[in-house]
Amino acid sequence: MPHPEENAASVATTPATQPEQHRPPAVEAAGLTHVFGSDVYAVDDVGLLVEPGEVFGLVGPDGAGKSTLIRMLATVLAPTSGDAYVLGHSVRGEARRIKPLIGYMSQQFSLYPDLTVRENLQFFADLRGVRRSEVDARIARLLEFSDLTDFSDRQTQYLSGGMKQKLALSVTLLHEPQMLFLDEPTTGVDPVSRREFWRIIATLHRQGITVFVATPYMDEAERCTTVAFMDSGAILFADSPAGLKRRVPGTLFEIESTDERAAQRAVGALPGVTNAALFGDLVRVLVADGGPGELELRRVVHSAGVNVRDVHPGRIDMEATFAYLAEQARAEAPSVEPESVEETGGDA
Length: 348
Prior knowledge:
2 domains, 14 strands, 12 helices, 6-stranded mixed sheet, Rossmann fold, alpha/beta, Alpha-Beta Plaits
C-alpha cells in the first residue's frame, strides 16, 4: 500500500475494537449466485474470503459480474442462491444489520447537483441518522480529509470529476462504517485525482477500515492487499499482487516496431511464447524458460516484413500478470460437451 503524508487529515471512524482473532471475516461467501431472467448468470457460484482491514481489489472485463457481486454484498441486490456473511451477518437474512456497518459507493454519481458540497453532506447526515450534535464536527473532518474545505459552498454540479468522487466518498463515510464497497470509483477521473483518491483509501486502510473496491486500472490493483480476477461471473484466482506475479513463469520482452499487430501475430506463433499482448505501442511477449530470446524475436518480426525499432526485457507488472493468468484460466476452464447440454435440456 502507498503511504500518504504523515500529516494527512484523519477521519473519525469506528472499526470493530474487539481483538483481531475474535473478529469475523469482513466477507465470507459460499455459492453466491445471481441470475437475471432465467439463464443469465451474472454471478455464478462465487466463494470469497476477505479478512478485516484488507484493501480487496476486484478486477475483470466489462460484464464480468463485478458490480452485481458488490451489490449483493452491499445488500442492494438479493442473491438468487448461496449466501455471504458481511461482518458476521448474512446478506440473505440480516441485511438490516449490515447496512449501518457498511458504506456503498456505486458507479453512478447520485448526489444532488444543485446543492452545495456542505448541503449534500448535511442532507445525507440527516438521512443516515447522524446525531445532530455530531454533524458539524463530522462534516468539518470529512471536508478536511477529502481536501474539499475550500469548495464547501460550491454547487456540486460545478465540481470536477475527481472532486465529485471525493465528495461521494465523504458522504459514504458520514455514518462511520466499518467497511466500504466501492464500485470503480475512479473511472473517468484524471490521473492526479485518482492518486489523490487512493491516498485517501490508504489512510482509511491504516485506520483499520476494510475496503472492497472494483477497479479497471492495474496500477490501482497493485495498491491492494489482495486482488481477485473475475470473468463470466466467476472468480478465477485471488492473491496478493506479489503472489500473483510469482505465478507468471518465464521472461517478459517488449517489442517496439512499425506495425504492432503484425509483430504480435509473428511472435505469437513461436514455440515457447506463452502470451503476446498489445500494450500501447508495444508488443509484450512472455517467453517460457528456454524459449526465444531478443535476437530470435527481432529476427522473426523482421521476417514478417515489420521494421523493428527495439526489443528489450520488460518488468512483469500487474498488466502482464493478468494477461497471462486470465488466458491460462480460460484455457483450463472445462468445456461443456454438446451431449451434456442435451442431457440437461439446455439450449445449444
